[in-house]
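Let us work through a complete example step by step.
Step 1: write down the sequence.
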Amino acid sequence: MKFEIIQPSEPLRPYIKQFVITEMEDESEYKVLPSLGIVIGFQYKGSLAVIQENQTSTLHTAGITGIVDSYKVFKNSPKIGTLLVFFTEIGLAHFTKHPANELFNLSIGLEYIFEKSLVDEIQERFALAQTDTQRIQIVEQFFLSQLQRIRTDQLIMEAVRLIYQSQGSIRVKELNERLNISASPFEKRFRKLVGTSPKKFASIVRFNVVLDALGEKKSLSEICYENNFFDQAHFIKDFKQFTGETPDKMRR
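Step 2: predict the structure and record it as tokens.
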């Protein structure tokens, strides 16, 4: 298996966290847990499918996945190669006017976001590329050509920072008060730029904190109350929604 992380060039760093190139020789099924951020994927060889309710659906060769609030099960073909683009929390807004919240829980073709002719062109160039360096150059050129010089929404950036700072435990009411903005316009701006509501985003942040804590020598009770769950029943219910498993089973 190949797994390589590449940092974007300087002009793209405020908007793209990293590129990841993965290759697998054998067919496999695997579970992906909810994470924070929108991802674009380019399959330059092989194919990828998602399994839902015992049905297998092949994904687009060039596709985009929004923020999700539950695990997904994927199945890759043998000899698959993928280049993934991980955006910063509001990075996608600097390349397209498409509202990020319309991608929530979806994996769709890239042509729904960008012009089909542009997507076709990048796929044609990928077919000719022989090295990872060439593939990264193709993707960087594409995003630099689509980069829109718009002002970053500092209020939403501050909201994201506060949510991370609280490890996902801050309440939306407190966010509204600290940012001096009423609930409705704040949620609308947040959903459009980030891809989900502030409350849902915070719950995914908290889930990832919990996931990290499972690797430490702490009891489930400690993890539960350190992360401000009402009780263990709520903790286990939320955890199962994100993973399909109980914390105990995941820890094993």
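Step 3: interpret the result. The chain has a mean pLDDT of 94.
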